[in-house]
Amino acid sequence: xxxxxxxxxxxxxxxxxxxxxxxxxxxxxxxxxxxxxxxxxxxxxxxxxxxxxxxxxxxxxxxxxxxxxxxxxxxxxxxxxxxxxxxxxxxxxxxxxxxxxxxxxxxxxxxxxxxxxxxxxxxxxxxxxxxxxxxxxxxxxxxxxxxxxxxxxxxxxxxxxxxxxxxxxxxxxxxxxxxxxxxxxxxxxxxxxxxxxxxxxxxxxxxxxxxxxxxxxxxxxxxxxxxxxxxxxxxxxxxxxxxxxxxxxxxxxxxxxxxxxxxxxxxxxxxxxxxxxxxxxxxxxxxxxxxxxxxxxxxxxxxxxxxxxxxxxxxxxxxxxxxxxxxxxxxxxxxxxxxxxxxxxxxxxxxxxxxxxxxxxxxxxxxxxxxxxxxxxxxxxxxxxxxxxxxxxxxxxxxxxxxxxxxxxxxxxxxxxxxxxxxxxxxxxxxxxxxxxxxxxxxxxxxxxxxxxxxxxxxxxxxxxxxxxxxxxxxxxxxxxxxxxxxxxxxxxxxxxxxxxxxxxxxxxxxxxxxxxxxxxxxxxxxxxxxxxxxxxxxxxxxxxxxxxxxxxxxxxxxxxxxxxxxxxxxxxxxxxxxxxxxxxxxxxxxxxxxxxxxxxxxxxxxxxxxxxxxxxxxxxxxxxxxxxxxxxxxxxxxxxxxxxxxxxxxxxxxxxxxxxxxxxxxxx
Length: 669
Prior knowledge:
By secondary structure, the chain is of the alpha+beta class. Among the domains are: 61-186 and 270-348, C8orf32 fold; 514-548 and 564-668, no CATH class. Helices cover 27% and strands 23% of the residues.
């Protein structure tokens, strides 16, 4: 007996020492958590909110008292907890009946309130998840290794717009169940980065590239019958040299990446596997969900059940029952079976069927565990009345979200999230006067000091601007527009809004009468690209001269800069098969300064030269010297002066029309 007492005293001392070590870690962890949360969601008042200031005077009496059914349900839960701790002494305490905002114990399943808010975005799981992650402010758990002692109703959480992972999960699960999903709240364990919402070691989702389909796969999809690839005429020696150079560059990049990984590698977490976290489980089946998955309520992102960030599960619950996980979580959640009807893998607090479960003969202890709980839950075996009927919703107030608050989207209309080498800022629509709703800043270093690129998203703008990308290294800005712009503008790339600097514009050709697809403007050049025109024009290149003197606008007293002088206009045409090749113009050049017009026709079949015609504009009557021609493959013909005069007259009129179009394009720029 003395030896046993000494052993017990030694074990108690070891447990006390471990508890002291864990408490010391928790003190350090609390500071670390505050810093990480401040980094992930800045600016933040996470630790300044006083939960005792929540007004509970207007809440119904059901929030402040328990009915007879609820008391009976709490008794069943307590009895289940006693059996559970007796049969599983090494397991942590279950999260069964925390207190609500009024300090009254409530069974966790009764805190869930299936809710379908009247907004189309919240009818799908991704809309619900993104709304909860954006609308609420994250608060860390008071103790990282134990679940909270309180669990507020979704109504109160929506009102205060903040909560811990359990509050996030209960609200999200309530919305998903209301939308028809088979969703459950999960009490388990996760990594430090997931529990503290620290995304500074993960790349921003907006920067992730789409997976490209391999060329071999594309070849397989192309079918059996396909064109043979042309012969490769490149030098093999040059290819080998380029491959060696590429390998050296790749090795250098890999070294730099390894250095960055070592610099940004998280320190070893002393509480790895012990950090409590809550998330949402969505089972396959309802709402055509093909595969079971997790949702992290802090980020609103979906995860596979094989994700390494999830380290274990203690229990899950919905608005009808509570299940305790009896499976081994040494490999995280990878090997878990999510068939909640399997009584070997999951133990239920409340009986769901009057029929006894069929267990293998070697599971007598589990059978005793289930039977003992079921005996308390069944009031009359003949009638088959179960404790499932005891669950009554004490949350009489259905969560209500006014339209104005729903459109606010974020706490105080703004939210900031930090990622690896990136910062994401979000605003509510109409909060900024320029329509800015999202900004992503990409940095070159982990400390986020050197800006590389800035992307901005806009909504509800009159000019239909959607996205703006600014490259800080090249100072190049690209604006993207949605259909509906006054000029049919699709994209605009520039370094400055001054006309003398370079501009590249792309257009929605279906909204333009001239079928303009692209416009490139430089200091003294302008190139227009067309698509699908009836006259087969596809390119127009204009060379501009120097500007003249500034002129006064009549009657206004203001000065405007003179237009650039048009020196040359070059137009290129596609082949018109309705005309002979030597009559179908391929290139037309108006030499405005030289008063000359050049025509080059398409090549005839089996000819290496093309027909040409040059006109020289001069005052007076038409003479043979005013036109020179070359007819490919034909003898020199007599010139019909009347025909040439009419052609020159038409070309002169066409030149004036084209010059007018160029001036219109200048004004449009």
